[in-house]
């Protein structure tokens, strides 16, 4: 007889909490600062929004598909370990992209190692008007004769050499094109002679250019996408390389969360301790706060360039990769269980039907979707706004850590707040708090200005998801709570974030970051005004207490019977008793 292995619930919870802490810490070391790295590379807000939106779309589609395939083939642990390793390797691929201009790296003005960045217009004015004491002639002649043919280049040089004024005043010249311009009469002669000499040369060059263009078109048609990428400018080449690497990275990292969540939950559910799995999520929020705060502090203490041609932003990638490989031994020993009787696909479809059948749940879906759009725009471009106001990685890391800690502190006051407001009002309060945050972000004035608004994350994220949790419990049938909650998270975190990244990138590029935050604030405030009216008009289905129905006794069941059935049963029992008594009397006689 096969011996049943004993399940250690405390050990499983400890390992689950440690895994969530380290994984969230690794993601927080890099993902909040990733759009800032794209900005340093030279991507526009629209390009950054496309990259981040594609990332969320891949997660939305690939996470359930990969989780279903890994369960079907019983490869859940192999998928978890492979996701940890390949996601770390794919993140390091971004460091292999060559930097086009190292002067484009932005550093804080208070950095003692690097001075404030110079304005390109100031540098250009100095180069044009400033005196040049050494070799002015080659610089000016090269700038003036760059676009001329060979026959035209010789004429100004001969004229300048025969000019006595230039011969005597060579040491006192400045960088001005007037000193090297020929006389008016000489210029007419030179133009006519040079044009006659340069005509066959130009014809030959036009023929060569046409031949080169036809050859390039043939090469592009044969190479396809690579050929079209070859003729793009540097910025679009950089954009497509980053987009390809981000797609590979997200394909590798997307299956991790769902597989770990399902495996650990089914393991605890097998031991009738699934209700204790929610306690491990707090460690994920604490790990994210620790990772973003410590990484911001570490990077801010480094110089702008930690080595030759190496920016200090690479520390985020190295911290992410090192923590990912630290998680690998823990991923190999996670307690997982495969419940083949549980069908995840039918559970998600049933959860969608439950959400669609309740008007209050549909309003909650629209609220979470709108909140996801706003949160993605904040996650992508808040650090850009802070950097424009002089914030360093220290200010950014501490502000994001404060937001996560305030979000984790909401369950401590959730009981009192839920009794005062209720789940429906908490949705409106969460969306209104997020709108106030967006409106505050548009008026940042200094490096530490974003810190007071981060305290509102206690209500904008904590209260909102607490209300979503209560809504899930209100409409879900027994055993479908996780599926309904997963539907809400997928719609908000992934679908809403994808739409918000795309829309936020184009809006920020067209009207600027300041008006983008103000527009988000206006949309959220309008929805907060309309949401209570829609909730009041929508019918509210009363929750059915399934535990009370299951615990109903026989007396309650008998009360539901009709009077006719009772009379028929009583008459049958009386007849049976009379027949038995008469039979006994006859037997004793």
Task: Characterize the structure shown.
- Among the domains are: 209 residues, Growth Hormone, Chain: A, CATH 1.20.1250; 199 residues, MFS general substrate transporter like domains (Growth Hormone, Chain: A), CATH 1.20.1250.
- A two-stranded antiparallel sheet has the order 1-2.
- The C terminus is likely disordered.
- The two termini are 63 Å apart.
- 32% of the residues are buried.
- The protein has 25 helices and 2 strands.
- It is globular, with a radius of gyration of 36 Å.
- With 589 residues, it is an all-alpha fold.
Distance between the termini: 63 Å
Choose one word for the global shape.
Answer: globular
* CATH level 1 class label of the domain at 1-100 and 234-342: Mainly Alpha
Count of individual beta strands? 2
Oligomer: single chain
Provide the succession of SSEs.
Answer: HHHHHHHHHHHHEEHHHHHHHHHHHHH
Q: Determine Rg (CA atoms, Å).
A: 36 Å
Outline the low-pLDDT stretches.
108-199, 545-549, 551-565, 582-589
Question: Class by helix and strand content?
Answer: mainly alpha
